[in-house]
Amino acid sequence: MTTLLQVPGAAYQLCVDEALRQAPFLIDRWCSRLVDALYGRSIAIQEPAERHQIQNAIAALKKNRVFIEKEFPVEFKKSMADDASAGSGRKAVSSAGSLSSVSFDELELMEDSQVQDAVESARLQQFIRLGCEPGLASFTARLSTAQGFLMVKADSNPLRPEIVAQALLRLLLALPVASQARACWLLDGAQLMGEELQSLYLLLNDLLAAQGIAPAAYGVIATPDSRAGRTFQRESADAFLRPKNNPFNAGFASGSLETDEESTRPGGKQLLTLDHLHHLLMGDYDNTGRDLSSIPVYGSEEVLHQEFSHTLPFALDVLNELEDHGEGAIKGKASRPAPTQSLAQLRAHLKTEAKSLGQSLAIEVVGLMIEQMAHDDRLLMPIRQVIANAEPAFLRLAVSDPRFFSDKSHPARRLLDGITSASLGYASENAPGFQEFMQSLQEVADLLKEEHASDAQHFAGLLREFERKQSRNTPANRQAQRRAVQALLQAEQRNLLAVKIAAEIRARPDYVEVNRIITAFLAGPWSQVMARERLQGESVPPDSRSAVFSRMLDDLLWSLDLATVGSHRKRLLEMIPEMLKTLSEGLQSIGYPPEQSQPFFDALMVVHQAGLRRLPELPGVMPKSTHALHKMFEAREDEPDMAPLWLAPQEVQHSGFMENWDVPANSGPEPDSLRTQDAASPAGAALPEAVESIDLHLGDWVELLVDMRWLRAQLTWVSPFSTLYMFTSEGERKHSMTVRILRHLLELKLVRVISQQGVLDGALDGVTRTAMRNSVQGEGSF
C-alpha cells in the first residue's frame, strides 16, 4: 500500500520530468515569437540605424536558433541541479523576490563582473515574472505539497522564473553575438518568456491536480515596513518597456558606475545602485587623499570652523538638538523642519557637504539601514525608538570610518547586532528582565549622544560595557554553556558509535533473538556501555581490563543459546555471578538507572533458569514490564539502523535535555508575540535525521512551549553531526533535544520560529535590495 509521503514524492518527480520534456517545445515557441516580435518592431521604427540594429539581431537569432533550442534544455536542467545543490546551504531570509538574491555580505566578495551579472539577471527575472505571476502562485502551492512541505516554500520551487532566467541568460551570454543583438532579444524576449512560462505553469498545475495534490497553505510573514525592505513593486509591462525606463536599452549592461559630473557632483541627484554599494564596500570611494582617522568628526568645533563653516551650521544645529532633546523637542521655529523631517534634513545637508561620493553614499546607506531597523516589528517599540534616536551617531561614524560597512567585526556593527539580538529575547515589555535591559540600553544611548561618539574606539568601549551587563556573558553562564556543550558532544559521540556497535552485534553469527527485551538491551544500553569503553580506550593505555565489557558480550550471547548451554550447565552456573556483576558495573559507568534495567535482568534470569533446567525452549510467561526499555532503545522498523539518542542523567541535567516529548498538539496558549509563519517542516515522520530537514540555524529565535508556558529561546548550539540542538531562554535556561524531537515539536507547532535572520543583517540586506531595485528600475532616492 502506498503511503501519503510516497504519493507526493512521485507526483513531484512526474512534474519535474514533464517540465524538462516541455523545455524544447517552450524554447522553440519562444524563438518563433521573438522573431515575429522583432520583425514587427523593425517595421514600426523610422530611424534607419535602429532598424538596421534590429535586423542584425534577427539575423543573429536565426543563425543561432538551432543551438539555442538544443542547449536550453541542458542549461535548464543544469540550473535546476545547481539550485538543488545550493538549497541546503541557502540562508533563511524573508525573501522579497528575485531582487533579494544578493545579500550585503555576499556583495563585498563579488567581482565587478559578478555585480553586473547579478543586475542583468535580476532585470531578466523581473521581466519574466511579470508575464507568469498569475500561474506561478497556484502552481508553487501545489508543488510545495508535492515536495512534502506543509506550507508554501517558493524558494524551493526548482521551476521558478529565476531558474529559467538563469538558464536563458547563461546560454545567451555564451553566444558569439554582439551585445546590441542580445539586448534586442531580451527587450522583447523577456516578456515573451514570461508568457510561455505562464502556459507551462498552468499545464503543470493541472498535472498535479490530476494526481490529487492539493495546494499548500501560504504563510503570512510580517516584513519590516520600510522603503529599504519592501518588496519590489510590480509595474505593467508597458511601463517597463517605455524607452526612458527600459533597462535593456543600453546594451543590457547599464547600471555600471556613474562617473559623469551630474552623477557625482555634491548636491546632484545620485543613484544608490548595486555597483555603487559594491564600490563603497570595497573602499573605492575614499578619494579624500587623507587617512580616515584624520577626517574631522561632524559636529565637532574643528569641522565647524575649518571644513564646512560656510554651509554646515544648520545641519549641526539640527544634529545637536536631536542629541540633546530628541526629535520631539525640535519645533516652534519657522526656519526649522517639522520633527518628522529633521533627520531627513540632516541627511540632506550632510550629503550636500560630503567631501567624496563615498561619504555621500555612506550617509544614505546609514539612513536606509536605521530606517528599516526602526520599523522592524520584531523589536519592541522602546528598542526601536532608541535605535532611531541613535542615527546621528552612526551618521558621523559612517562619514569618518567606512570600515563600518566592510568590516563585520567593527565595534559599531557588533554593538548594533548585540543590541538587536538580545532584544529578540523579549516578547513583550512585561517580560522578565526587560526593564533592566532597557536601563542598560538607555545608558548606551546616552553615551552615543556625546560628540566623540564617532570612532571605533568609542563604540568598542560601549560594546564592552553593554556585553558586561548582559547576563549571558558572566563567568558562571559561560561555564554552564561549556558544561552543557561538553555533555551533548559526549552524548552524540557515544550514541553514534553505539549505533554502529548495535549493528555489529546483530550481525554476529552467535547473535540469538531470544526475546525483544534482551535484544533491545543489547542494541541500547549495552551498546552505549561498549561505546563509552571504546572511546575511553582511545585515551588510556590498554590493560587487562581495558575491554572487559566488550569481552563480556561473548559470554552473554553464549548464555542465551539454550541449545548449547543445556549441555554445559556447570559452566553457565559458574559464569552467572560474574556476568551479573559486570553487567551492573557497565550500566553504572554510563549512569543508567537501575530501575530501567530491571526488565532486562528479569528476562535474563528466565533464560538462564531455562538453561540450567535443560529446557529446550523458553517458558511461555515472560515479564510484562517491557514497555519502557523497548520504547527507549529498540530501533524503529522503518529505521533499523537508527535508535533514538539516549543521554545519561548527568548529561540531561547539564544540558536541559527534553526527554518527555509526547505532548498533545493543543497543549497551551498561543504566544502573544507570534508574528511570523509557522515553521514549515517536511511531512512524514520517516525522514532521515539530517540538518537539511530542520531549517534552523545558529542565532535563530523561536518560541518554545515548556511546562505549559511559552518561552522565547535562541538556538545557541548544534552538534557536529546535527543530531542534537540546544536552545537558551531567559535566565540562561538550557533546552536541548534531538533533531527527531525538534522536528516533532515543529510539526505540532510547539516550537514556533520568530526570527531567522538578525535585525542588522536584515536591514543591510534591505539596503542591498534597494540598490538592486534602483539598478533594475533606474530610480534612486538621492
- Rg from C-alpha positions? 33 Å
Sequence of strands across the biggest β-sheet: 4-3-2-1-5
Percentage of β-strand residues: under 5%
Please work out how many helical segments DSSP would assign. Answer: 30
Major β-sheet, in short? Answer: 5 strands, antiparallel
Number of domains: 4
**Stretches where pLDDT falls below 50 for ≥5 residues?**
1-7, 88-100, 221-269, 287-341, 621-627, 634-642, 662-692
Oligomer: single chain
* Dominant shape: flat
Taking all residues together, what is the mean pLDDT? Answer: 75
Structural class: mainly alpha
**Range of helix content:** 55-70%
Number of strands: 5
Q: How would you briefly describe this protein structure?
A:
The protein is mostly helical and 782 residues long.
Question: Notable features of this structure?
Answer:
782 residues; mainly alpha; five-stranded antiparallel β-sheet; 5 strands; 4% strand
What report would you give on this structure?
The chain is mainly alpha-helical. The protein folds into four domains: 6-86 and 95-219, no CATH class; 269-469, no CATH class; 477-633, no CATH class; 656-757, SH3 type barrels (Roll). It contains 30 helices and five strands. The chain has helices at residues 6-44, 48-87, 104-108, 112-146, 161-173, 179-210, 237-241, 261-264, 274-282, 301-307, 313-325, 342-352, 357-374, 381-389, 391-400, 403-406, 411-423, 434-448, 456-469, 475-507, 516-523, 525-537, 548-559, 562-565, 569-589, 594-612, 627-633, 649-655, 739-747, 759-777, and strands spanning 701-706, 709-718, 724-729, 733-738, 751-755. Strands 4-3-2-1-5 form a five-stranded antiparallel β-sheet, sandwiched between helices. α2 crosses α6, α4 (112-146) crosses α30 (759-777) and α9 packs across α13 (357-374). The protein is flat. It starts with 5 loop residues before the first helix and ends in a 5-residue tail after the last helix. Mean pLDDT is 75; it is low at 1-7, 88-100, 221-269, 287-341, 621-627, 634-642 and 662-692.
